[in-house]
Amino acid sequence: MLTAPQFTSFNPPRRILMGPGPSDVYPQVLAAQAKPTIGHLDPLFIGMMDELKQLLQYAFQTTNPMTIAVSAPGSAGMETCFVNLVEPGEKVIVCRNGVFGERMRQNVERCGGVAVCVDNAWGEPVSPEQVEDTLKQHPDARFLAFVHAETSTGALSDAKALCALATQYDCISIVDAVTSLGGVELRVDEWGIDAIYSGSQKCLSCVPGLSPVSFSEKAVAKIQQRKRPVQSWFLDQSLVMAYWSGQGKRSYHHTAPVNSLYALHEALRLLATEGLEHAWQRHRAMHQLLAKGLTSLGLEFVVAEPYRLPQLNSVYIPAGADDVRLRSTLLNEYNLEIGAGLGELSGRAWRLGLMGYGARRENVALCIQALSEQLASS
Ligand SMILES: Cc1ncc(COP(=O)(O)O)c(C=O)c1O
């Protein structure tokens, strides 16, 4: 018999999260999550899921019936798109301009697909010209996959132009919108996006652990024509959809994360109340304020102005500043979390997030004040 460990309840401090995610969660969303758990096949819960689907369709700007939240984080949304769509031997053009494009390539290869990479430097957007050249060189490509908002660098790619190319060259587009959804313009139907995934913990300001996904008619047809079943039972959309639809008669697939779905419902409800276009505009306005402050401190952005994500601001660490010490001082003395550089930018850049509820004037002011004080003393 092991001795029972005796601990006190975990009491996290209230931090201000200005890193690459998770972002600050709306107080109303935290309150929604604390409501009583009910059965996941309870008719009231099913009614809530129907509303959640409509709210997700609004956030994605789509009428796709196959629009749901995967019961796992953004990485599972990514995997859902690849395992359902890509079959062995199929060619996928994968755009890499940071960490997450490379993860897409790994997903393609694990599905037995053939990845053809289009590489752009870290900090640059995906080049539509290079993508078009590659599509011309590979007329047998079935998919075009890219990251809309590359969280590792803060670069925004032109999803509208890239999806138009996918349509022109008869490819299915697979779009990573983990950091873009709710923070910058994104129009699934108008731009012809076929498969898209996001995350709850960025500009939706919900608790981490859920991944909204949506599939167009063309993507659904591709899934229905598969020669063999999806290798992942859990992520197989044909099974999951019987749970998310079914006109009141749901069949059990897995036990939904009931309270997390309450939280997502509330976060999306707040987004719908604010209005998508207003949320995009708010992110842009707060970014402009932050950029002004950062520039006045002499900090330089990694990404050129036209391609900067408002919700993820990467700046080079100035000479003489101690990366680890400064970030831990901000955390311990200001309760402020900023993000470290990732991959090629590790130790070279900070990533300052302005996501969802976090994109507020007082957060910008605190961040500039903290950086100004700490850079002056380094
Ligand atoms: C662009 C992008 N794609 C995918 C992911 C993976 O999401 P998660 O960490 O929720 O699994 C992230 C997470 O930061 C991301 O920023």
Characterise this structure:
By secondary structure, this protein is of the alpha/beta class. The chain has two domains: 16-22 and 276-376, Aspartate Aminotransferase, domain 1; 28-272, Type I PLP-dependent aspartate aminotransferase-like (Major domain) (Aspartate Aminotransferase, domain 2, 3-Layer(aba) Sandwich), CATH 3.40.640.10. Helices cover 41% and strands 15% of the residues. It is built from 13 helices and 13 strands. It has helices spanning 27-33, 43-60, 74-85, 99-110, 128-137, 159-168, 188-191, 217-224, 237-244, 258-274, 276-296, 323-334, 361-376; strands at residues 16-18, 66-70, 91-96, 114-119, 143-147, 149-150, 155-156, 172-176, 195-197, 211-215, 312-316, 336-340, 349-353. The strands form three sheets. The chain has a seven-stranded mixed β-sheet with strand order 2-10-9-8-5-3-4, sandwiched between helices. Strands 1-12-13-11 form a four-stranded mixed β-sheet. The chain has a two-stranded antiparallel ribbon with strand order 6-7. Strand 8 (172-176), helix 7 (188-191) and strand 9 (195-197) form a beta-alpha-beta unit. Helix 1 (27-33) packs antiparallel against helix 10 and helix 11 runs parallel beside helix 13 (361-376). The termini are far apart. The mean pLDDT is 97. Pyridoxal-5'-phosphate (PLP) binds at residues 20-21, 73-75, 78, 100, 147, 151, 176, 178-179, 199. The modification N6-(pyridoxal phosphate)lysine is found at residue 202. Its cofactor is pyridoxal 5'-phosphate. InterPro entries: Aminotrans_V_dom, Aminotrans_V_PyrdxlP_BS, PyrdxlP-dep_Trfase, PyrdxlP-dep_Trfase_major, PyrdxlP-dep_Trfase_small, SP_NH2Trfase/AEP_transaminase. This is Alanine-glyoxylate aminotransferase apoenzyme. GO terms for molecular function: alanine-glyoxylate transaminase activity; L-serine-pyruvate transaminase activity.
